[in-house]
Design goal:
This protein is an alpha/beta fold. The chain has helices at about 5-10, 15-25, 30-45, 50-65, 190-215, 220-250, 255-260, 270-275, 280-285, 285-300, 340-360, 375-385, 400-405, 430-440; strands at about 85, 95-105, 110-120, 120-130, 135-140, 145-150, 160-165, 170-175, 185, 310-315, 320, 330-335, 365-370, 390, 410-415, 420-425. The strands form 4 sheets. It has a 5-stranded mixed sheet with strand order 1-4-3-6-7. Strands 14-13-12-15-16 form a 5-stranded mixed sheet, with helices on one face. The protein starts with a helix and ends with a helix.
Length: about 450
């Protein structure tokens, strides 16, 4: 989902990226933060390579999706290599599938592919050439129902359509070179995906119109802020659409796919209720097990519960535990961050100001870094003027502390009172300052 922070970052570069993210709307927040930071820099540095960079960010966004409904999703790292190859004997030939279709507004001779993300690569399962506005692929073989992508065109102009490989014959009606606008039939998941994309299309138009206004030289700073707020409204509307389709399709791949990409932003009891509604074929899958574990962690660390302790190393290599501070300071903020996280760095001046304002009144902070590189971590501590205690196991997204507290996106915060109970979670900016002032008055 698109946060305000990511929206602002994307607005600094190019709205086309935001359109893509709305269209392929189930990306992981942590990956978007990274892509935003890296790709916007490239856009600013070299505008003439915009199309190439746009393809890169699209591909990276696409491949971070859990495209197989019952296999674990690899956590996004700070580098993603774009690789497209052809599968050779990697997927057991169990379910033969035919994908056939018609096209409008696309030239004959264009290549059409069906691909899946496997072993950290986009793998083409089959391809066909458009002839007379039609194409057909007969050699698609998968071991189990899986989400893939129908792609058309070369890299710089490639378009993507999600396609669920869960039926013997799947029919595609593709109109024009726009992503996620194909009518795909053959299974409930494909029909529902097509219907959902149609409902999301008006939001794309709103975004494009706002983009034109935002990028205009005559648009004032005040108006730009208003546009950013409009994006918040669009985000909420897209969430309503996505939630509706998820609830209606928990018996097929679309429902489990949406749930697996949005559960971390939901109430754990709501997630458990949706898990209970899943089709039996999904209830014991690996992604479902991961969600169940997340629910347990969220219940353990919910507001009102006693904090859960964990231990890591300081930048100097000394042992440090959360319990060294939790339950001792009047108010403790556990701040999950990383040197490579753009939104974390953007938020840090606010955290520094809060610390300086309240440290003499019993306020303490413990930083928990999701870094992999110790030197980058130490440099960021110095550059950002962080003076409070820090610890990390330098395991990135496999951080033990992040796992215990169910952290799926950063920055993330946990506020702990002197009695050791969790008071609040994920406060930032003005909300954080107001809560600290309230607790220490």
């Amino acid at each position: 989902m698109i946060s305000l922070q990511m929206t602002k970052c994307l607005l600094q570069g190019d709205f086309f990226i935001l359109i893509i993210i709305i269209t392929f709307s189930f990306r992981e927040t942590r990956t978007l933060n990274y892509l935003c930071r890296k790709e916007i820099h490239l856009f600013k540095q070299n505008k003439k390579h915009m199309k190439k960079n746009l393809f890169t960010i699209l591909l990276l966004a696409v491949i971070t999706m859990p495209i197989m409904a019952q296999r674990p999703v690899k956590r996004a790292s700070s580098t993603v290599k774009k690789t497209v190859t052809t599968v050779k004997k990697k997927v057991p030939a169990v379910l033969p599938i035919i994908v056939k279709g018609s096209t409008q507004g696309i030239n004959d001779g264009e290549k059409v592919y069906v691909a899946i993300f496997q072993n950290r690569k986009m793998n083409n399962l089959d391809s066909a050439t458009i002839k007379g506005g039609k194409f057909e692929m007969k050699n698609i073989k998968v071991s189990a129902p899986i989400m893939g992508y129908l792609t058309i065109g070369k890299e710089e102009e490639m378009v993507f359509d999600p396609i669920y490989l869960d039926a013997k014959v799947i029919t595609v009606n593709k109109k024009g070179k726009e992503s996620s606008n194909a009518d795909i039939t053959g299974s409930p998941a494909n029909v529902a995906e097509s219907a959902m994309n149609k409902e999301l299309q008006p939001f794309n138009k709103q975004i494009n119109d706002l983009r034109q206004e935002y990028m205009a030289k005559t648009t004032t700073a005040e108006r730009k802020k208003a546009i950013e707020k409009q994006f918040d409204g669009i985000e909420e509307q897209t969430k309503v659409v996505q939630k509706k389709f998820m609830e209606e399709n928990l018996s097929n791949l679309l429902g489990i796919n949406i749930l697996s990409q949005s559960y971390y932003a939901m109430d754990p009891e709501e997630v458990q209720a949706d898990i209970n509604k899943l089709s039996p074929q999904f209830k014991n899958g690996e992604i479902t097990q991961r969600m169940k574990e997340w629910v347990v962690r969220q219940r353990t660390t919910k507001i009102g519960n006693q904090f859960t302790d964990f231990a890591m190393k300081t930048p100097e290599g000394k042992d440090m535990k959360l319990s060294d501070f939790a339950g001792k300071a009047k108010l403790l903020l556990v701040d999950f961050w990383a040197s490579w996280c753009g939104p974390c760095r953007a938020e840090m001046p606010n955290v520094v100001n809060a610390y300086n304002a309240y440290k003499d009144k019993g306020f303490e902070i413990v930083g928990v870094s999701l870094d992999n590189n110790g030197e980058a971590w130490k440099k960021a501590i110095s550059d950002l003027k962080i003076t409070w205690p820090q610890m990390s196991d330098l395991k990135g997204w496999q951080s033990k502390g992040a796992e215990i507290y169910g952290i799926s996106a950063i920055p993330a915060t946990v506020l702990i009172g002197q009695d050791g109970k969790i008071i609040a979670k994920n406060l930032r900016g003005e909300e954080l300052n107001n809560k600290i002032a309230e607790m220490l008055k």
